[in-house]
Amino acid sequence: MADLAAVTAQLHDPSTYVDDVPYAVLADLRREHGIVWVGEPEQAGWPEGPGYWLVLRHADVSRVLRDPRTYSSHLGGTQIRDPATPADLAYVRRMMLNMDPPEHSRIRRMLARSFTPRAVAALEDQFAGHARRIVDRMLAGPREVDAARDVAADLPLLTLADVLGVPQQDRGLLYDWSNRVIGWQDPDYAISATFDPERGTDIARSAIALRPAPDRQGRMPDPRTRAGMPDLYAYAASLGERKRELPEGDVMSILMAQRDDGAGGDGHVSIEEFENLFWLFAVAGNETLRNGIPGGLVALLGHPETQRRLRAEPDGIPAAVEEMLRWWTPVMVFRRTATRDTEIAGQRVAAGDKVVVSFASANRDEDVFDRPDDFDVDRDARAHLAFGHGPHFCLGAHLARVQMRALFTELLGRTSWIEPAGEPVRLRSNFQRGVKRLPVRWTP
């Protein structure tokens, strides 16, 4: 292998992923090392950092994720890039994503109880209706569409509006907010401002008036800081107050009505906690699905025999969705921080070191998946880590699967063929494997 530092620099550079994930590089590193040191040179919007350990094997990734005592989400947050100031670090630590037990357990417990069987059943019915109407709209329009924007993007926005209790006319805010947070490395997404406030509710208009403007270099403030997303937080605070005063049947109304006075409990969810949960759902709840759906389409476009088979055998769609998630892997990496001296894959890791798990690599580990680079809907892909593992396993995994199954059932059941109409345009990011544009042509 070429100079190791040069190879790992390629993995850290977000522009690498505009072409695609360098899976061959990951495979070589996974087989030869299992864990490698990656430098953090200065980049636009990303100051020089101390570097991090990149964990590549499925077994080691799983072990890190299920051991929060040794590998903390709280110490430095879960993004590779360190928060810029102590205040920024304190801010990200208030999010469930960046908590360790028992604080994490309390919020997760209350949130899990809000997804009652009745609420989930209602959501599943709504998801099916959204998928049907999205395909209705596609079939009523031109036969060439941008599947990433016109098909994939709207489903998670509609369903998140259902989960969060956001009025449907405000769902475009979720699109802009998730773009700004997840796409901060991509100039097309970092300043996303597609939402028209005149079409939104009064709380949307009040919130968007607080939206920060780009600086002279065209950059927005860090979206992981409260100052970087004042419009989101103002909207969430107003929405949370309304949910508490005028509860409806949505998940967030159920959450705001709960009390938790047990071990680690502290009564009701506070408005500040609601704001941070809103941020998490609006961003994380959007992006895995928004990139998983076009990723699945990319797989079907490149494997026409599989597309034919799923059209003839729609009962195979649930298994195909698992393989899509494994093969595409929308979230490529997540960070932990070592709380003590430890060892991973024979490599000493010091207390305080950043430990970054590579889902992109783990989901192609040949020790777990035979012929891992192949897209094979006959395999049992359920060992994939696209939704994480351990205490932070994605609470919305079931709902994401339901949405993907619903949309692919509609797409394949109501068209006779879908084919590429151009090359996909990928997101510039070393975190999300995203698709910004996916031109396709469909046949009735």
UniProtKB/TrEMBL annotation:
InterPro entries tied to this protein: Cyt_P450, Cyt_P450_B, Cyt_P450_CS, Cyt_P450_sf
Keywords tagged on the record: Heme, Iron, Metal-binding, Monooxygenase, Oxidoreductase
GO molecular function: heme binding; iron ion binding; monooxygenase activity; oxidoreductase activity, acting on paired donors, with incorporation or reduction of molecular oxygen
SUPFAM superfamilies documented for this protein: Cytochrome P450
Family membership noted in the UniProt record: Belongs to the cytochrome P450 family.
PANTHER family, A to Z: CYTOCHROME P450 YJIB-RELATED, P450, PUTATIVE (EUROFUNG)-RELATED
Stated name of the protein: Cytochrome P450
Species of the source: Humibacillus xanthopallidus
